[in-house]
Amino acid sequence: MKGAIVVAATAAMVGSANAVNHGHAHQVFAHKRNTDLCSTWVTTIWEETVMTLTPTQAPEPSTTPAVVSSNSPVTTSSAAPVSPTSTVKLPVPTPEPITYATPGTYTVPATTVTVSETTTVCGASSTHVVPGTHTVGGVTTVVETATTITCPVATATTNNGVVTSIITSTEYVCPSAGTYTVAPITTTVTEECDIHFPIPTSYAPGTYTIPQQVVTVTETDYVYYCPYTSSGLPTSSVIPVTLSPTKPIEALKPTTTAPASQSEAPKSEASKSSDSPKPTTSSTPNTSKPPSGGFNGSFGGKGNHYGITYTPYYGESGDCKDATQVKKDLQEIKNDGFNVIRVYGTDCNALETVGPACEELGIRVILGVFVKGASCSYESKEIKDQVDAIANWKHLGLVDLMVIGNEVLMQGLCQPGDLASLITTAKSKWSGYSGPFTIAETLNIWERSDVTSALCDVVDYTGANIHPYFNSQVTPATAGKFVSGQLDILDSVCSGKKAINLECGWPAEGSCNGSACPGKTEQLTALKSIRESCGDRTVFFSFENDMWKQPGSCGCEQSWGCKEFFKGLL
């Protein structure tokens, strides 16, 4: 996670993100968010809503949704992507980027900002991308019927190398039920780089501070963001942008649209607010081979909860559990109606303790190879040791699915082609296993064309980690609907290959992320929603709380344990 990429973020201030490193062992959910607010570790934060569900039927071509835009005064001015040439300081706690050209130790002075009334401004965000065309930003909403919404969107214009960001108010007609991204930004890059883009952000009244920070930089051109913290505010210091339906409209008569041989995300420049936003579409589906092996993809467990993640560590200390305790845990998991556990890797004697217990109890296994170093090659010792240990494991007949890596593309640990090569190598080494393979990434990664072109032919399912809490517009009650929408999109990413949700939960403690508030009651509500909506395709995160972790900036890292919810359901 260390490198020259940082996200600005107002989103970072409350941990609004899709998971970046919910790995296993002592790095399970390390991004969510096992860092302090002001850290020299850099993290790419993604909003899951950028990848949205396209309504299955299109409106008549003759009917074009009306868009009315009005600009409000300029709120943020900063230089074009690489380094700012000018900045207007605002009376709001927008995190400001600091670029350090050379390694060294730097002091960031303390800063205090007082906000007297709720204010919506252009915030900043960025992400690290590979060469190609990428769609970022925008405001996403889910509507259940044809309606008109009004929402603020961030737009940007460039003049003499200076990017000026403003807030525009846009009225958009949603022609039918579905998920829509309003005013996304599409950009094309020719080399791997960071792209920066504006996002609408609202702040509640209160006092926001950045304490003095000492930053040690070991790289050149290091971009550092230090978000403000708040005092005298409710648990959520950032107010989610509210999408206000203004009036329902009569649904437009749909017409059948033949699928195109190729499709790409809609192109829309933020500076052209008069352009009609379109629902986001997924990348070109790849025609690829059907699943092979003994697992036929018929997910489902008793009572609509398919699987649960399990790591053989004591929740309080992080120490390895012995075989007796592992068997006790797995008996509890079996009693709660789960058919499958997901194990992230082979460390902490997982193969030796989990295998015999699962064999005895009749529990199936989703098994992983965990990649955490700078290489995803089989020749890397930590990977080779895992692959070889699995090759010699006596319980391969228990495995329903192999997962190679956990969000390694998102973290930049692997390139898609390298990950595909590792999967191919693992297949050649595991002669005793004939079942399917997948990876665990987030939807926005799966929709990249370089990912689908490299990986659709070597995986059997589109495996994804889907965490609704890190979408600021999702409430506990709508968590299941959100996850189902993500799975619907993933089902079409690799042609003919079904999606599986490999990691999904809701924290019982921590700070609100917009409308997504943690809590014991909220966790129960969210898990119930997910279970009823798509529990038969979901691996729930996680068996128990991990108190050995740091709480993280969201205050939520330790409290994802959900075993209490499933007790007594059956």
Notable features of this structure?
570 residues; alpha/beta; TIM Barrel; 2 domains; 8-stranded parallel beta sheet; 11 helices; 30 strands; 29% strand; disordered N terminus; hydrolase; cell wall
Look at the structure and give the mean pLDDT: 72
Strand arrangement across the biggest beta sheet: 26-25-24-23-22-30-29-27
Q: How many structurally independent domains?
A: 2
List low-confidence stretches: 1-90, 230-296
Terminal residue distance? 41 Å
CATH architecture term of the largest domain: Alpha-Beta Barrel
Instruction: Report the principal-axis shape.
Output: globular
Rg on CA atoms, Å: 23 Å
The name of the CATH topology of the largest domain is TIM Barrel
Strand residue percentage? 25-35%
Q: Can you say what the CATH homologous superfamily of the largest domain is?
A: Glycosidases
CATH secondary-structure class of the largest domain: Alpha Beta
If helices are DSSP runs of H or I spanning 4 or more residues, what is the number of helices? 11
Keywords: Cell wall, Glycosidase, Hydrolase, Secreted, Signal
Organism: Bionectria ochroleuca (Gliocladium roseum)
Subcellular location: Secreted, Cell wall
Region (Disordered): 55-90, 250-300
Task: Explain what this protein looks like in three dimensions.
The chain is of the alpha/beta class and 570 residues long. The chain has two domains: 52-255, no CATH class; 302-566, Glycosidases (TIM Barrel), CATH 3.20.20.80. 18% of the residues lie in helices and 29% in strands. It is built from eleven helices and 30 strands. It has an eight-stranded parallel sheet with strand order 26-25-24-23-22-30-29-27. Strands 2-10-9-19 form a four-stranded antiparallel sheet, with no helix packed on it. Helix 2 (323-335) packs across helix 3, helix 6 packs parallel to helix 8 (449-455) and helix 9 (479-490) packs parallel to helix 10. It is globular, with a radius of gyration of 23 Å.
